[in-house]
From TrEMBL, chains A, B:
The keyword Lyase applies. This is Orotidine 5'-phosphate decarboxylase. InterPro entries: Aldolase_TIM, OMPdecase_type-2, OMPdeCOase_dom, RibuloseP-bd_barrel. Belongs to the OMP decarboxylase family. Type 2 subfamily. Pathway: Pyrimidine metabolism; UMP biosynthesis via de novo pathway; UMP from orotate: step 2/2. Residues 15-281 form the Orotidine 5'-phosphate decarboxylase domain. The active site is at 105 (proton donor). Its EC number is 4.1.1.23. It comes from Lachnospira intestinalis. One of its GO terms (molecular function) is orotidine-5'-phosphate decarboxylase activity. The lineage of its organism: Bacteria, Bacillati, Bacillota, Clostridia, Lachnospirales. NCBIfam families: pyrF_sub2.
Length: 307, 307
């Protein structure tokens, strides 16, 4: 799947992933009104509004953006109905040939970690059959529990030719509380980065590993260091746009082949219509605003990369 | 909810939580056969088998055990059908007045972390209504992202009078890879423990905080240190039994009031019938074997505590 991701990034010339994090406040009134009219102000109604919102955005970006990253928390908060839309969104994006990164940040140990890996990337044994659950292409994983948490994911990645992105240095202001603490003179995130390189060396695609990393755009200097520590890891870079990461900062996350990083934007794309810059589209045409914002983001990043 | 947990532990004289981690291999053949006969070898069939298994165990332990800890990964791997049974299990245990600790180990930042908190402990806004999703009493949370990840949970805990257990030192062999690394001469888990005490000081119940910690039974010396660092945090202790933790090691996790810790056993209870010690019950009577194993565990721990 890492090969497919790299191919799509090359073909569309767009090292970009759109975060499908549909908070209710981003969803245009007309979609909410229609959904609530049909299902009432219920979890089902909320889920229907999210589904219509996601579908319109995907329809408007799938030909220019290689990947989407649905944030499962935004679905999980609507319970079973939310999870149904998560699944529907994953399936729909795959039917449009997009690569789907489940932003699930799961992390546990042993058989539990294996169950998460199976839930999101693999197949579960039911009697004599092997069945898929959510079946994303990639998942994000938390490293705090060490190798016992990661190995079961790596095993499933090998079997299914899927991938993971392990949290190394997150984009938020307080990420340094633990991640930056010095251990033998070096920050924790560097040690985690070294383990990512080690875990990833066991399951390589053509040029990059099935095991990637998450490093926030908001920490470009750390990105530069981590790029060297994990040369074969694809870096998923959150924090561009809304969180303050700029295109010129992103160059450090890429290798000299122009590859090695994929930059995420969530609300910058899906809620573009709420911004002055794209207000001309109007709320009705929110998905066209998203397309324009995606095109602008791609141009912005490619501009910085090819300067 | 921490007050209710403490009350129940006192009343039942049982500082014990049963992990409802229903792996398919633990489920007796007759339950699987019946479920597959009705629904086929499908995710729905697996979910039905899990539900019948859980229900029988809960019916046999609710009067002697104060709390259950369903491990969501074991349900998530069966997709939507699995999550429905997770929800059904949570609801059923609450109807039996058990305290439910959702072992979800979620962790993200800002609005995403808030969405997870809402999903598992709070209420989500849908139009003019506030609705519940999974609605457990407690959830487990991963600290790797720092305060940005924890604060939204603390906010929801205050609003809803619910609680969290933050991973501090996990029970697995490789937990030391990151958690034990020395920072200014002290292991990372101690720093996380200090933050747990700090986060928890803001939302106190009568004697203990709504913010607890997870510390593995397999590391009793570290438990002793962490007990002192976080005197007001309830410690959820996994790793007893199957993972090697012994009752005499557990005393270090308790305060002098005989409270402050709740010990988890999962397969030791739910799969008791597969062990020689309880084989006499037979597979048909698996839930009675679970009851006996729970009684034995309570006696074992109380014996060590009152020595």
């Amino acid at each position: 799947m890492i090969n497919k991701l790299v191919d799509k990034i090359k073909k569309q010339n767009a090292p970009v992933v759109v975060g499908l994090d549909p908070m209710m406040k981003f969803i245009p009134e007309h979609l909410k009104k229609a959904a609530f009219a049909e299902y009432g102000e219920t979890l089902e109604g909320a889920a229907e509004a999210i589904w219509q919102f996601n579908k319109a955005i995907v329809d408007n970006i799938y030909d220019i953006v290689p990947a989407v990253k649905p944030q499962v928390a935004m679905y999980e908060q609507f319970g079973i109905e939310g999870m149904k839309v998560f699944q529907k969104t994953v399936d729909y994006c795959k039917s449009k040939d997009m690569v789907v990164i489940g932003d699930v940040k799961r992390g546990d140990i042993g058989s539990t970690s294996e169950a998460y890996a199976v839930a999101h990337l693999g197949k579960v044994q039911v009697g004599s059959k092997k069945l898929s659950a959510f079946n994303e292409d990639f998942a994000t994983v938390n490293p705090y529990l060490g190798s016992d948490g990661i190995n079961p994911f790596v095993k499933v990645c090998k079997e299914e030719k899927k991938g993971i992105f392990i949290l190394v240095k997150t984009s938020n202001p307080s990420s340094g509380e633990f991640q930056d603490r010095l251990i033998d003179g070096r920050p924790l995130y560097e040690l985690v980065g070294e383990k990512v390189a080690e875990w990833g060396s066991e399951c390589m695609g053509d040029d990059y590993s099935y095991v990637g990393a998450v490093v926030g755009a908001t920490y470009p200097e750390m990105g530069k260091t981590l790029r060297k520590i994990m040369p074969k890891a694809y870096i998923l870079v959150p924090g561009y746009g809304a969180q303050g990461g700029k295109a010129e900062d992103l160059v450090h996350f890429f290798n000299e082949d122009g590859l090695g990083a994929i930059v995420n934007s969530s609300r910058g794309i899906i809620a573009a219509y709420t911004k002055e810059q794209y207000a001309k589209f109007g709320e009705e045409h929110f998905a066209e605003a998203s397309r324009q914002a995606a095109l602008d983001m791609i141009a912005d990043i490619n501009g910085a990369l090819h300067k």
